[in-house]
Design brief:
This protein is of the alpha/beta class. The chain contains 7 helices and 16 strands. The strands form 4 sheets. A 6-stranded mixed sheet has the order 5-4-3-2-1-16.
């Protein structure tokens, strides 16, 4: 099944970002893709909290979501809108992904569970939990490319989430992201390969890339990794749209070769032996 993967350099204006996503959906139809994947924070990427607040609205008011649903319906293409910043009913924000079908209907939502609170050696400091509430549910949804397990960026570092999604029947995982350059260079490829190999799935990781209007820099290298850990697509460091194939037969072949999913056991409490 052919997919499109959109690598973006999202800015601070949702209208501009909405056009980028809509154009990618249209181009994906021309290229024969059944589904297109976009990065984390496709709607707006702005670390100025005061300025960003004006662009973060309730889901039913979000112009990027509306434009994406309209484009999906117009072109008959499914979309995993990697994530948007949306305002919850309690006034806090959610980092929320959406799976939209070819009629424009929202089939699934996923709120990022693990929030990025780190201090890097470069001096970069991030406190996602200062503005966002973490999600409380793991989500998988049936799509034209298979049962799709949903994750977002920092979730990648928590393999138990991917194990749970695989046990729920997911054959493809999506990890939209906005990785920093230092963490991306060190960990991006190896973690995505590990999650694909562990769960015996294709992993689609649409990423943010380049220098953004708010001054941050992201790593790029949107990937499609197969269940054997082979990289089928790597979009490098520039924004753009790429295409690749997800082969369900490859998943079945790899899982038959190394049936790790059927060998998985519940881990009992750890017995700590004192020194």
């Amino acid at each position: 099944m052919r997919i499109g993967v959109l690598q973006m350099t999202s800015g601070i204006d949702p209208a501009v970002n909405a056009r980028t996503v809509a154009e990618a959906v249209a181009a994906s139809r021309v290229e024969g893709a059944a589904m297109v994947f976009t990065p984390e924070m496709s709607g707006v990427l702005d670390r100025d909290r005061g300025r960003a607040a004006a662009a973060i609205v309730a889901e039913d008011e979000d112009r990027v979501l509306a434009a994406t649903r309209e484009a999906a319906a117009k072109h008959g293409v499914w979309v995993h809108l990697g994530s948007l910043a949306v305002r919850r009913e309690d006034g806090r924000y959610a980092n929320r992904g959406f799976v939209i079908d070819g009629s424009g209907a929202v089939r699934a939502r996923y709120d990022k569970m693990h929030l990025f609170d780190v201090d890097l050696p470069t001096g970069e400091s991030w406190r996602e939990s200062a503005s966002y509430a973490g999600g409380e549910a793991a989500v998988a949804v049936d799509t034209p490319v298979g049962r799709l397990g949903l994750a977002i960026c920092y979730d990648l570092r928590f393999p138990a989430l991917f194990a749970g999604l695989a046990e729920a029947g997911a054959t493809v995982m999506s990890v939209p992201a906005a990785f920093t350059r230092p963490t991306g260079a060190a960990h991006w490829h190896v973690l995505l390969k590990a999650r694909a190999i562990e769960a015996g799935v294709h992993v689609v990781a649409a990423a943010q890339a380049g220098l953004h209007e708010d001054g941050r820099a992201t790593y790029g290298h949107s990937l499609l990794v197969d269940p054997w850990g082979e990289v089928l697509l790597d979009l490098g460091e520039a924004a753009g749209l790429g295409f690749a194939e997800i082969d369900a037969a490859r998943t079945a072949e790899v899982r038959a070769r190394v049936p790790a999913l059927s060998h998985r056991r519940a881990i009992p409490p750890v017995q700590v032996v004192p020194a």
